[in-house]
Amino acid sequence: MHKNKYIVIFSHILVWLVLFSMPYFLSYQQERDINRIIAHFWLPLVFYAMIFYLNFFYFIDKYLFTKKTIHFIIINVIFITFFLVFKELIEAAFFKELVENDLRKENGKPPFEMFIYMQMLSYFAPLLFSIALKTTKRLVATEAERKEATNIKLQSEIQHLRYQLQPHFFFNSLNNIYSLVDISPEQAKSTIHSLSKLMRYLLYETNTEKVPLSKEIDFMKKYLELMKLRISDKTQVISTFPEGHNGITITPLLFISLIENAFKHGISANKESEIFIHMSVKDNVVIFKIVNNNYPKQTNDKSGSGIGLQNLRKRLQLLYPNKHVFKSEVVNGRFFVDLQIET
């Protein structure tokens, strides 16, 4: 902020230095009349600067931006008229000879029309420029505030969705453990231990914007091991994950909802079931595909909350706008998911 402030101040000083030095550049290798330069260049520039900064720092904010346009116009007309008269008085008092010479060149007739049109226009120029500059500055500040507010809202939504996902994941995992308690208490104990490791990752390692893809893969592998404890021999789970890719980072917990969904809707107690999970990386695009049988959830099945895929779609829209492809469809009793994320 301080650096930008100094840059703005330096820019203003530089502009006025250029303007005040223009008479010398324009009269290069010509005889310079210092009185003429003061009267016709420097004195008006002082008044231009006063009009500019009075409006830039006070009048525009107090009157124009508060929709007191009439007051704004009247005040500026008064100030411009005052500066015009004051300039004439200064010229008459300190540059009388110069004024008389100018009148003599005009055959004794003051250039009244030139004074009305050119002088008034020249004094309105800094006024209009201050309005344009102040308005642009205000628009830039408003846009910056809008973007900041949007970003805060975005982060709040993402955080809400993340907090929503963790209980959802924990709830589904507890359902799996509950089904093992009577069948295999030892497996239930092992599952609780595995779940504690997964929850440690959820609680302590996913509170960042991005995590290494390798960590997310390890999490998914452990989750698959946990899920395989409860499935029967009639269900086959085949998964492939890429090796390496240590330089790739990704938002955590984007794929787990798809895996949960595959186990929730792709397994039957009395039918053969298959779940195929494949992840690959091509350039900077992470490709995640799942194919599983489609066994629609019964209306009386209250397991889970059904928010997993909705959560995922919202997070993708917020985190990877125009940088992801998410397709899902049912074909011949199989559910296909194709998710591609540009990291």
Can you give a write-up of this model?
The protein has helices spanning 2-26, 34-64, 69-94, 96-105, 112-181, 185-204, 213-228, 256-265, 308-319, and strands at 211-212, 235-240, 249-250, 273-282, 285-293, 324-331, 334-342. It has 343 residues and is α+β, with helices and mostly antiparallel strands. Strands 2-4-5-7-6 form a 5-stranded mixed sheet, covered by helices on one side. It has a two-stranded antiparallel sheet with strand order 1-3. α1 packs antiparallel against α2 (34-64) and α3 (69-94) packs across α4 (96-105). The protein is rod-shaped and about 110 Å long. The model has no long low-confidence stretch (mean pLDDT 76).
- The total of helices stands at 9
The CATH superfamily of the largest domain bears the name Histidine kinase-like ATPase, C-terminal domain
CATH topology of the largest domain: Heat Shock Protein 90
Mind describing the biggest β-sheet? 5 strands, mixed
Which shape, going by the Cα principal axes? rod-shaped
How far do the termini sit from each other?
A: 31 Å
What is the quaternary state of this protein?
single chain
| The CATH architecture of the largest domain | 2-Layer Sandwich
Protein name: Two-component sensor histidine kinase
Transmembrane segments: 7-26, 38-60, 72-94, 114-133
GO molecular function, one term: phosphorelay sensor kinase activity
Organism: Formosa algae
Features:
5-stranded mixed beta sheet, 9 helices, Two-component sensor histidine kinase, two-stranded antiparallel sheet, 343 residues, Heat Shock Protein 90, alpha+beta, HATPase_C_sf, transmembrane, single chain
